[in-house]
Amino acid sequence: MDKILDIITAKITKGFIACEYDESYGKVTISNRPDLCDFQCNGALAAAKKYKKAPMMIATDVLEKIKDDPDFESVEAVNPGFLNIRISNTFLADYANEMASSEKLGLALVKEPKKIVIDYGGPNVAKPLHVGHLRSAIIGESIKRNARFLGHDIIGDIHLGDWGLQMGLIITELQERQPSLVYFDDEYKGDYPKEPPFTISELEEIYPTASKKSKEDDDYKERAMTATLNLQQGKPGYRALWQHILNVSVSDLKKNYEKLKVDFDLWNGESTVQEVIPPMVKRLKDEGYAHESEGALVVDVAREDDTKEIPPCMILKSDGASLYNTTDLATITERVRLYNPNQIIYVVDKRQSLYFEQIFRCARKTKMVTDDTQLDFVGFGTMNGKDGKPFKTRAGGVMRLESLLNEIDEGMYKKINENESMSEAEARDTSKKVALAAIKYGDLSNQATKDYIFDIDKFTSFEGNTGPYILYTIVRIKSILEKYNATSTLPEDAKINPASNSVEKNLLLLLTRFNSVIENSFNELAPHKICAFIYEIANEFNHFYHETKILTQEDEEKKNGWICLLNLTKSVLETCIYILGFDAPEKM
Ligand code: ARG
């Protein structure tokens, strides 16, 4: 379906053309004065400059040509030259009915689907997931779902941190503890054991211990660096051990991401592209892009018109070791080779924005990507505690994602168990759903770049701009529909009636914006726009609900029309929360 704004814009544009003004002036926007009109066109003001006429004259000219359009309830030219449009209730109801009977609620799939790679999650192997990883996962998952819903071909890649010093640290610590393990025997020629010599909880304790030791003990650090180098150069025992670390860690990560309803098409990591690095470095040297600077190999990426300093992008350290940069560039090369994407999106902490600026510039300058490959950095802000400082445990440590989720699940379970007669299993399942909505909506409803305060009490509240409030609204609709269905069957030809009051009209005006919102939120990589949209719908629906006695209405046609309106409201809300990455329970 065409978007409602486009339909109205087309009508107004015709008016401008009929008066021999340029068609570009016919653009219509949603009114910011809903008390005066539903849509407005300000084109006459801009046209006035070009045609050297009073804007009001232009507006009146155009008005003459369009005022009899039956889809308008009214159009007015008002000072200083606006066109104020009220849409007819019949047009609006027809549009809503067409949405209700169309696939994807009438959203038109993109005409030219893009091939997109989205890089999100980015956890580091062997380190427990902490709340810092939450945002990337939540925002990335939502952007991915949004793109896919529009018909783009998008691949999600987790880009594991699985190759740096942390691996050498773990290997060193394992060697301290179990020096007789076969992995450390350089003479050993047989196969390595299939079972890992540690569990996930051991692994999670080993890393911080090793990291602490390396800070206090230079010799230990030296050994960890050597272990890293040996691993990278392919020492068989180290590689085998590394594979165990990766496997144990990845199966744990999968469990955690599953709880968050976040999933990845690719479980690639920094290690995946190691073979790509040497030929890439060679090319950069041969083609004159990279030069030596203080022993390191760098590519200059500064431009003359830069207003801030953009340091060169380092490709190799002075000891020849590769870095985070090297891996990211090699990953771009691989993504281009395998998928030839039109767009690559990175969802990473905004503190890495300068870093990505360097990477993007370097990739363009060295022709790793073509000029029309879109490279996007969605940099997100920090999740803070109520004290405004980065979110911590009560004891002041780094909050593990798992503990946070459990804490919220538990709190929600108490709340849900309080006022409902649900079975234990149902209450558990419901509280998980509501808790996830609380966390995800709490995050996504803020513009990604902003820091925000993770306020559990606020996010889990059933009132206000929260995930649970949205779910509560959906559950309310479900319960009315269930009551209706218990005694009646909706006739095949039932449909939404033209609005009989302003509340109904407002609800319909909102619902019919669905396709615009879904398109814009992806184009602007801004899931918070979907949150704002459904919050408005939930408010307007609840307003409607309080003013309307739906089930006791005696006029069947009226009642059935409302049931259709409820169905559409429910579909729009459910589709939107699906894109945001959570779903609604049956009761709550
Ligand atoms: N592992 C990194 C970190 O924890 C994030 C990776 C982000 N993605 C990327 N392609 N660099 O900071």
Structure overview:
InterPro entries: aa-tRNA-synth_I_CS (IPR001412), Arg-tRNA-ligase (IPR001278), Arg-tRNA-synth_N (IPR005148), Arg-tRNA-synth_N_sf (IPR036695), ArgRS_core (IPR035684), DALR_anticod-bd (IPR008909), Rossmann-like_a/b/a_fold (IPR014729), tRNAsynth_Ia_anticodon-bd (IPR009080). GO terms for molecular function: arginine-tRNA ligase activity; ATP binding. Belongs to the class-I aminoacyl-tRNA synthetase family. This protein has 588 residues and is α/β, with parallel strands linked by helices. Among the domains are: 84 residues, 2-Layer Sandwich (Gyrase A, domain 2), CATH 3.30.1360.70; 95 residues, no CATH class; 180 residues, Isoleucyl-tRNA Synthetase, Domain 1 (Orthogonal Bundle). It is 52% helix and 10% strand. It is built from 20 helices and 13 strands. Strands 1-2-4-3 form a 4-stranded antiparallel β-sheet. A 4-stranded parallel β-sheet has the order 6-5-10-11, sandwiched between helices. It has a 3-stranded antiparallel β-sheet with strand order 7-8-9. Helix 2 packs across helix 3, helix 11 crosses helix 12 and helix 17 runs antiparallel to helix 19. The model has no long low-confidence stretch (mean pLDDT 94). Bound molecules: arginine. The site of arginine (ARG) has 8 residues, from strand 10.
